[in-house]
Amino acid sequence: MIGSTSSPAHSVAAHSVDAHSVAAHHVPVVIVGGGQAGLSVSWYLGSEGIDHVVLEAAEVVHNWADTRWDNFTLVTPNWHCKLPGYAYAGDDPDGFMTRDQVVDWLTGWLETFDPPVRTRTRATALRHGAAGGFEITVSTPTGDETLTCDEVVIATGGYPIPIVPAFASTLDPSVTQVHSEEYRNAAQLPEGAVLVVGTGQSGAQIAEDLHLEGRKVHLAVGGAPRVARTYRGRDCMTWLSDMGIYDIGVADYPGGRAAQEKTNHYVTGRDGGRDIDLRGFATEGMRLYGALAGGQGSELVFEPTLQKSLDKADAVYNSICADIDRYIDREGIDAPPPARYEPVWSPDHEPQSLDVAAEGITSIVWAIGYRPDYRWIEASAFDGGGRPMQSRGITAVPGLSFIGLPWMHTWGSGRFLGIDADAAYVAQTIVARGAVAADTDAGSRRAS
């Protein structure tokens, strides 16, 4: 995520170049975004001696320190954490790193090579250059500058703009509203009950975090699926990896390109990892509703979709277990016996309205996702929804590539598990198109 103004929870090492050295000359390749995806492309370009620069609007990999809540953990096992020339080597490969541990791990990676990063440098406009290539306008602490390049890689993240519904501004101003990326802990919110809207990975885990802290939680349940944490003796994501699910290209994946719009399954890595069972939360006092349809003042309106959403999430959960069963049988693997999830609770009615004042709700956490924002890019590389039209990160616009998008190539894209392969492909394409090696010390940024 680009553009946070909060203070980092950790001091992340930044490998910066002089603020004026890049502006003075043409750079063959510019990478916009200094998260793990952009830096992975930099690793590969550096290993080929390709002259390039990475532009980062804040600090290197700051989003891990700045936009995750205090009790955040990965939902993928630690062994999934692989970046170019670097992989998780701790003593808990099947565990789940906390936010602070992820920051430390990434800091360790940055110490293995020397990416040419300009921090506090935000790209504000990208256009075709008059003499070919691209012109990039950047905003820096000392003013605006213009760079030129032959190749540009956009690594700003798939969906950088937090979504908040239009009617949020009409709600009772005494109710505190935060987006999930602003949420840090229960103590941050005023005393009283909390409404969490959305049950993707962030919404479900934040609802759990608040629930474990003893807060009264109301949860608007969306259409996200869920998955078992462990099944038949192993983590489900380890089974799926062994089955090759994360390596299937989007064009070959069931549902094709529609898979790119799927919400990730909710589950948690907290306390060693476990299922997130919203029905179980309901038996413990959490109030569940269907999708939030609108509201004004202190009144909210919900759609009668709660039962349908719970049933659908459980059906996906059991379907994944069935896929694993078939794989175990086909491969002749010795594993504990199969099982299926049986609902522990069902709503006896579908509440369709809520008076937040009457229920003592003093805050709302919006966890309904993000939207793309590439308005600063002047290029015919986007569909009607503003999403990049790309194949494995490569667009039809010569010299324009993307990295770090969800489902850019596989289900693993955008995750630690898939970034290395995606970055290698983008970098190889750039090299094949004739990117220029640095004139001096071409190997200085080669991974150590």
TrEMBL record:
Domain of life: Bacteria
Pfam family, one: Pyr_redox_3
Keywords per UniProt: Oxidoreductase
InterPro entries noted in UniProt: Auxin_biosynth/cation_transpt, CHP04046_FMN-dependent, FAD/NAD-bd_sf
Positions of transmembrane segments: none
A molecular-function term among this protein's GO annotations: flavin adenine dinucleotide binding
PANTHER family in the record: FLAVIN-BINDING MONOOXYGENASE-LIKE PROTEIN (AFU_ORTHOLOGUE AFUA_4G09220), FLAVIN-CONTAINING MONOOXYGENASE
Protein's UniProt name: FAD-dependent oxidoreductase
